[in-house]
Amino acid sequence: MLIALWSPKGGSGMSVVAASLALVAAERSEARLADLGGDQPAILGLPPLSTAVPGRGLAAWLAAGASAPTEWLDAMTVPIGPRMSLLPLGDDAPAAAPEAGAALGVALRDGGLTVLDSGAGPSPAARAAVEVADTALIVIRPCYLALHRAVADSRLRPSSGAILVEEPGRALDAGDVAAVLGLPVVARFPVRADIARAIDAGVLRDRLPAPLASPAATLLAGLADARGMWAA
Ligand SMILES: Nc1ncnc2c1ncn2[C@@H]1O[C@H](COP(=O)(O)OP(=O)(O)OP(=O)(O)O)[C@@H](O)[C@H]1O
Ligand SMILES: [Mg+2]
């Protein structure tokens, strides 16, 4: 099952939400984190991953086109913990075709849970991967500029919910975001100084802060209920 996250505006906190979802999911079952943004090794506090081997990384997979072998995905998988693994971006590659992104999304739907960090910027391949996901979720701050972009984005149509990354002092709230997007707000992650410090220190993987773990667990439980999966 593929849960794809996308964001209409850079720096929303999407990669941190993606890492939190995968880390929490891995507490109970196998979880993969597919990184089309390239920040996950740093967010997870990993040493730089070797990108020297050809074919290693999702960028190379996408560059090979829609017929890239699925086995490459297994070969590039980096174990992160007992049940968690990372599909790293690897070297930047020339812009890949939407067909390759759709093929990647379809390949990632197989197996257990995969959380896709679809990265920043208007990559046609990443967009296509979001569009074929089992569940697409928009990650957004309650910001007028982000909402303005979101309503014009083709990824909104296949999305089934919004994840709010909430900072204090915003005029817009969860009700406004839900009304503008026409989607339920399925999780609310706070922006906090102690979370930022944990990310900067690279300790998320070992000690996921409770304000990230809690909304991640609630969101996963809701998705599982909706699909009749992961029954306790
Ligand atoms: N919940 C949070 N609380 C505090 N700081 C956060 C939180 N989430 C993310 N950040 C910080 O905000 C910045 C952006 O986070 P992140 O990289 O997750 O966003 P993104 O949407 O994936 O950005 P990009 O568009 O670059 O991919 C980083 O400096 C990160 O440390
Ligand atoms: Mg990111």
Structure in words:
The protein starts with a strand and ends in a 5-residue tail after the last helix. The chain contains ten helices and eight strands. The radius of gyration is 17 Å and the shape is globular. The protein has 232 residues and is of the alpha/beta class. Helices cover 39% and strands 18% of the residues. α1 crosses α10 and α5 packs parallel to α6. The chain has an eight-stranded mixed beta sheet with strand order 3-4-2-5-1-6-7-8, sandwiched between helices. A hairpin with a 4-residue loop joins β3 and β4. The protein has a single domain, classed as P-loop containing nucleotide triphosphate hydrolases (Rossmann fold, 3-Layer(aba) Sandwich). The longest helix has 18 residues. Bound molecules: adenosine-5'-triphosphate and magnesium ion (MG). The site of adenosine-5'-triphosphate has 18 residues, from α1 and α9. The site of magnesium ion has 6 residues, from α1.
Outline the secondary-structure elements.
Elements: E1 2-6, H1 14-25, E2 31-35, H2 40-43, H3 58-63, H4 71-76, E3 78-79, E4 84-87, H5 98-109, E5 113-117, H6 124-131, E6 135-140, H7 144-151, E7 159-166, H8 174-181, E8 185-190, H9 193-201, H10 210-227
Parallel strand pairs: 1-5, 1-6, 2-4, 2-5, 6-7, 7-8
Antiparallel strand pairs: 3-4
Helix pairs in contact: 1-10, 5-6
Bound molecules: adenosine-5'-triphosphate (ATP) and magnesium ion.
Adenosine-5'-triphosphate binds next to α1 and α9.
